[in-house]
Design a protein that fits this description.
6 strands; alpha/beta; two-stranded antiparallel sheet; Collagenase (Catalytic Domain); 270 residues; 50% helix; globular
Length: 270
Amino acid sequence: MGMFAWLARWLSQPPRPIPRALWCSTIERYPFLRVLGEQEKARLKTLCEAFLASKEFSAAGGLVLTDAICVAIAAQGCLPILELGLAAYRDWVGIVVYPDEFIVTRSEMDDAGVVHEYADVLSGEAWAGGPLLISWHDAAMASADYNVVIHEFAHKLDMLNGEADGIPGLPEGLSRQAWLQDFMPAYSDFCARVDGGETTRIDPYASEAPEEFFAVSSECFFGAPDILAAEYPALYRLLVRYYRQDPLARQQLASDQTSRTCNAGICAGS
């Protein structure tokens, strides 16, 4: 099948199955997806198929958009809403993929009323009510402590109830007061540590604003849950309540299963 032909047909039709080989290679590529249980992987695949049918991917900067790129972004982006459902990504459609970091021109008015323009070099950006922009180079290099896709999709969740402010649209049973009670002390402590010159295990960019702390914490929650749980246990538990997932328990279960397999002499090379 020609490059992008499968996805192009898909976008104008109801959800269609992602080819098995493509799905398996996508899962194997990212450790935070490999640790999912088999039922979780199956539900994530179904969610990705619905996501791809509801969104419109486009390329910029000379990138040639492929099925593999779209499925990789969908799989990473849908992991946070595995238990929240596709409705969490409502009210926006477009995903623009660049080959690498891209430039966005911004304007800012100073105290004298003079407007200044400047160029911002980005690896991703989420626009309120608009598209989500992603650098494929950065999306492809997703790791335990860096995931631009989850970061930008977390901003979209944050925007469900208005401007991004670090407080996403909260489910029933999780109040704004409860969120702030655990979120703000962690944010304040992290800012103090960064301001004090400490080298942190969590990306210091999280200290830029509450919305960035939420986005970076979400990256860490799914990619390096052991770090987030150790650094800010109350925040970790809060995100467990919000996302309705426990990546640390998932990670530990996968590790235990691997250990049992190795002890049984089934590991490659045994």
